[in-house]
Design a protein that fits this description.
With 287 residues, the protein is mainly α. Helix content is 68%, strand content 0%. Helix 1 packs across helix 11 and helix 2 runs antiparallel to helix 7.
Length: 287
């Protein structure tokens, strides 16, 4: 039985996950990896996010990332490891995270007691994460915790993000949503990525998107205007609730007061990052 207020864990995740993701949109990551010979944007993303798993191939990354077209992944993996080893990529990523957080949040916030407190709380929550059936989390859990508080906070946010993400994929499979159906239905909630952004970054074509939408209509989950039906909204809610149940342990371990405080701190840092231009405007919406 949960000791947390309803959806407290999800609210905490929603505060930490975007802050973790800032480095993927940062020029600092592109510059660091370009200096190591990885100049292509897709190759840089695949390398940065999968490097903790070692010299993996396209099949592993397609499985673990879920919503990317395998053809796009295969254009870059495993070839990218001939240019930059996983260890090289991990070091470049951490340098990029350091530069990104300092630029977005400012030196005062990076060195603040609030940052150290956030790192301690997030790391304590991550103590209760589990490795089984969670490949991206498990790979990152084997990495050392950085010494500086802002990097330790980012590392803990990464652990919590990938732990929930791995569980979310199981929920999508249970719901019978394939990779693109998951993206289309999420966008239809009003909270997902814009189709243009998906097509530009995930390797899918407009025809693929429309075919997935048609499959959802055939199941009665999407209407003719591309909006979720009542059944579709219910299914998406069930996916999130299933994910919540599989992701409860870290937040139960931290406790209600700790979760509330971590959410408060995370939201403050996230707001500052967003105001500093951390996220591309074209990322969200239904266009």
């Amino acid at each position: 039985m949960t000791t947390l207020p309803p959806r407290a864990a999800r609210r905490c995740h929603n505060a930490l996950n975007p802050l973790h993701s800032t480095h993927y949109f940062s020029p600092d990551l592109a510059e660091e990896l370009a200096a190591e010979g990885v100049a292509d944007q897709s190759a840089a993303y695949f390398a940065a996010r999968s490097a903790a798993m070692g010299r993996v191939g396209a099949g592993t990354v397609t499985a673990a990332f879920y919503n990317f077209n395998h053809e796009l992944v295969a254009r870059h993996l495993p070839a990218v490891w001939e240019t930059a080893s996983p260890a090289t990529v991990l070091a470049a990523r951490l340098r990029a995270v350091d530069a990104t957080l300092r630029r977005l949040l400012g030196e005062e916030a990076v060195a603040s007691p609030a940052m150290a407190e956030a790192a301690e709380l997030a790391l304590r929550a991550a103590e209760a994460c589990t490795r089984h059936a969670r490949p991206l989390y498990a790979a990152h859990a084997d990495l050392p915790v950085p010494g500086e508080p802002h990097l330790a906070f980012w590392h803990a946010a990464t652990l919590l993000r990938e732990h929930r993400g791995d569980g979310h994929l199981a929920a999508l499979l249970t719901a019978g949503l394939d990779p693109l159906e998951a993206l289309v239905s999420h966008t239809a909630t009003g909270k997902g990525m814009a189709p243009r952004f998906v097509l530009a970054t995930r390797g899918w074509r407009r025809a693929d998107w429309e075919a997935a939408a048609e499959r959802l209509r055939g199941r009665g989950l999407l209407d003719a205007e591309g909006e979720l039906t009542e059944a579709g909204a219910t299914l998406r809610a069930q996916v999130e609730e299933h994910t919540d149940r599989m992701d409860a342990a870290p937040y139960e371990h931290l406790g209600a007061a700790g979760v509330e405080r971590l959410t408060e701190l995370g939201r403050g840092f996230l707001l500052a990052a967003a105001q500093a231009g951390a996220f591309p405007e074209a990322m969200t919406g239904k266009g």
